[in-house]
Amino acid sequence: MVEPIITVHHLKRYFKVYKKKAGLLGSVQSLWDRKYQEVRAVDDISFEIQPGEIVGFIGQNGAGKTTTLKMLSGLLYPTAGEVSVLGFNPWDRKSEFQKQFALVMGQKNQLWWDLPAMESFLLNKAIYEVPEQQFKKTLAKLIDLLEVQDIVNVQVRKLSLGQRMKCELIAALLHNPKVLFLDEPTIGLDVVMQKVLRDFIKAYNQEFKATIILTSHYMGDVKELCKRAIVIDQGKMIFDGDLQEIIDRYARNKILSLVLSEPTKRAQLEKFGEVKDFEYPKATLLVPRANAPKIAGELLNHFAIADLNIEEPSIDAIIRELFLSQSGN
Amino acid sequence: MIKTIKKYWFLFWKFRSLRAMKLLEYRANFWFWVTVSVMWTFFNFFFFDLIVGARGNIAGWNRNEMYILLATFTMLDAFTWSFFYHNMQEYISSIFDGTMTLTLTRPISPQFLISVQANSYTNVPRFFIGLAMLLITIHRMQLQVSLLSALGFIAFCGISLLFVYSAWFIVSTFSFWVDRLENINELVPSTRRIWQVPKEVYTGFVSTLFTVVLPFALVASLPSEILLGKAMMHWLVFYAIFTFGLFYASTVFFKISVKKYSGTAN
User: Fold this and answer.
1) Model-level pTM greater than 0.95?
2) Distance of CA B230 to the CA centre of its chain
3) Given CB atoms, is A184 within the 8 Å cutoff of chain B?
4) Quick check: B262 and A15 in contact, CB under 8 A?
5) What is the pLDDT of residues A118-149, one digit of tens each?
6) Window 64-103 of B, Cβ < 8 Å to A
7) Which of A6, A21, A272, A276 could form a disulfide with A49 if both were Cys (CB 3.0 to 4.6 A apart)?
8) A 55-94 residues with CB below 8 A of B?
């Protein structure tokens, strides 16, 4: 059996956060009297990741995704728990470990703003001690995959956000990391550029057999890239398994999209399921997942229908459902 | 070991070349700051020349000796402004804005990276003004500088730079412990007034404070005294030991403080 490349046992990270009273008086009072509150950013999570896996970290803002990634990178010391990444304790910050992973944060830039990206690549080559031949080969491959031949010698400040992100990825991957932590890599990008980056991440995973942990607010990233998802809410892990399992478990309904060929009343459709939208000739119905094929058949028998589609709800909606079910608990 | 030294040496110069490239993107800004720093240097010399001219000497240092001190101060000050100010400014900002994250994940000493990645070239002319002033004054005084004195002067200029660096680095490292200290980077530069006068100016408690407890008064005084042949061995030994101890303390304090890094929200 293959040894996991990342092992996390009962990881905890608590922060002390200052709570200020409202108003000017509260600010003045805070000069000598401050109340602190303990925030459990990561609260006893455990998981293992196998080499070559792409795992999606899903969670709302402040759920603890980035804090977990920072602990796996050796940036933050945990309050308790054990972590092993590539056989190293990340907090030892050994250079042998640091040469084998990369952390890409969509909101942090490592490229030199006033200089062409190529200068930052050469700097990273020196910092990571990448041999000349390997540097040339990897750079050529990454430039080719991301199609940035024309921009690597243009000043970074003159590049678009998408072009900059592509160059950020190249800078982070020049040393061929075995483990890649991607924190919101597509944040702020348009849908076309999001797709380009997703394709690249997929290709990189296949080409270099890299293990990837991805956090993203865009469920499209997770859906397209990750077979496995870890869902975190308020520092606790509430799900770890196949993304499909989340869909099966939490998507209670399916969506039936109809295009009617004859005028029909809303009340008639309501007999078959919950009508979400109705604007003749289009209608959208939510129906229980298990009965969807049967209800679709009945609809075809009762109405003149030009087109009918059975769809899964969006992954965002399913995750919302999951979080709602957790808060209900 | 040699491989590591070569890597660090290469990176040191790589950063210098990157900064030079960056500087050449904004030439007008460069020339403006060169003008400001050169003017400041001349005003400083003029100010002390007026005082020495009126009083004959300052704490026993005559006009030429004061010129040696001011020239030494100017060179050291130009160096600290060129290197330390910008690196410490970026260091402090990186703790607050979270870009320290990038530094800490790289396979290199973070203290080295923090301390060398930035610099400015606008104070380089000041350094050469100081050097020219030093050579002119030595020539005018017909001072016989032995090889040992010259080497001692260079070595103790280096020790002074290490002392200022260590003190500055420790002060900047406090940024890990508090949410925001906006003016923390101005604290050590504000001690420049202490370095640019002879250590004998200070008396009583202030003398103990600035020559023993926080020996900023020795920064320019001791190298100048070596050139002038009036340095005392016990001060040199004390200052060297104190400086290396302070440098060691700066590395230990950094290692402890970095555990407080929260990386900001994202």
Assistant:
1) no
2) 23
3) yes
4) yes
5) 999 999 999 999 999 999 999 998 998 888 88
6) 98-99, 101-102
7) A6
8) 66, 70, 73-77, 93
